[in-house]
Each structure stands twice: as structure tokens, then as C-alpha cells.
Amino acid sequence: MYDQIGTSYSLGRQPDPRWQSVITTALGDAQRIVNIGAGGGSYELSDRTVVAIEPSAVMVEQRPLGSAPVVRANAESLPIVGGWADVAMALLSVHHWSDWRAGLMEMRRVAKRRVVLTYDPEFHEQFWLIRDYMPEVAAFERSRVPPVDDIALVLGGNISIVPLAVPWDCLDGVLPAHWRRPTAYLDARVRACCSGLAQADPRVVERGVQALSQDLRSGRWQRRNRGILAAESFDAGFRIVISTED
Questions:
Q1: DSSP secondary structure string for all residues of 137-185
Q2: CATH architecture observed for domain 2-244
Q3: Boundaries of every domain in the chain
Q4: The whole model's pTM is what?
Q5: Which end of the chain is more exposed for a tag (fewer CB within 10 A), N or C?
Q6: Are 130 and 180 in contact (CB under 8 A)?
Q7: What is the per-residue pLDDT across 70-92, written as a single tens digit (0 to 9) for each?
Q8: Residue pair 174/166 in contact by the 8 Å Cβ criterion
Q9: CB-CB contact of 115 with 89 (8 Å)
Q10: Are 42 and 172 in contact (CB under 8 A)?
């Protein structure tokens, strides 16, 4: 899929330093890390031994010079010796796997500590872009994103779940990243970096963009969303699930 929709990810999906701090804390003192669904290499640590797993050639080509070595493989069949890694991490990739349970079991096989960044689609449904302009996208999100509790159950071990708020000026262009910068969604390049929009029915997206543009011009969006205009961060449902063995 990302061979089609991922061509500009390196431009719009830059690591946000505030997210980097939380993710680095979740990784702890791990020295050997497997990054599953690694994409362009966001949030990989340069001072650790990292092996990136990424099936898309287009995404591999966007990895910067000097980034971690990458193996083209799928989460459901990791080419990693059991127990080799200190941590297996998957950052916003579980919902793209063909069999997420099998992928999580592979994470358990290769590492005693597992770190998964995912999101709760019910929170996404309440995000104004989806709620007010593209409600059809909500059904698609629910169809592909496993519940956070189900991810935790399959990962097993000792579980902790850390909320990851979206700062108003978030650099990582996930779907809700521009929640306080609505004009960004009028830019097709911004929308192309959000898989939920890139995979949606183009007619739904275009209709929503036109309605948003009209509401911004008329001031309706500002009146409807005045409560968020001074907020510094937004809980869009992103959660880091940390699983460890005794």
C-alpha cells in the first residue's frame, strides 16, 4: 500500500521532539531494537543498534543516509532470531498489518520488551475534521485499528499504557496533527501524509475539504471550534502500549 500512498512521507512525517522524548523513555535502556513497520525511520535512536523492518520499497528509499539498516519483510514473519532484541517497537504501523495478532506474537518472540504506538479510533471520531466534514472516514478507521486493550492482551506480560497528546504545532503530520491549524487540510500534500485520508474515497475527502474551506471563509469553523483555539495540546487517542516480561 505504501508504495502507492507513501511517496511524500519523508516531507510531511517528521519526528516531533516531544513525541521523541516520550518514545525514548518507553524504550528505556535497550541497546538492540527492532523497529517494525519502520517507514522513513522516524524516532529511531542513533545511539543504539537498530534493525528496521519495512516491506515498502518506496518507504525504504526515503530513509535518510546513515539511518539504521533495513530489511524488507513483514511484521507477521520477522527475520530475527528469537530473543535477539531488547525491545521490539511498532510505531503507528499495527493497523497496516495483514494479521495484527500474528505480528504482535512475533514481537513477543523476538524481545522481552515491546513498545507499540497506536490510537483509539473512538477519539479520532471526535476530531472535528472527521466528525464535521468526513464522518465516513470513521468507519474505515474502526475497521482497521485494533482496540488498545486487545493489543495489550495479545502482547501480554506487564502492561503500562501511556497517553501521547498531540501538540498544537506537531511536526509529525498524523491525521489530527493540524487540529489547531485547519487550513493545512486544504493542502493535498498534507492529506497525502495521512493514510486515513489517502485511502478514503476521494469524493468524500473532496466534499469535506470544500465544506471546510467554506466554513473557514465564513468564520463558522472558528465559531464552532473556539474552545480549542487557545489549547496547547489535544488528546486524539494516541497511546503507547508497553509490555514487559518479568
A1: HHHHHHHHPPPHHHHHHHH-SEEEEEE--EETT-SB--GGGGTT-GGGG
A2: 3-Layer(aba) Sandwich (3.40)
A3: 2-244
A4: 0.92
A5: C
A6: no
A7: 999 999 999 999 999 999 999 99
A8: yes
A9: yes
A10: yes
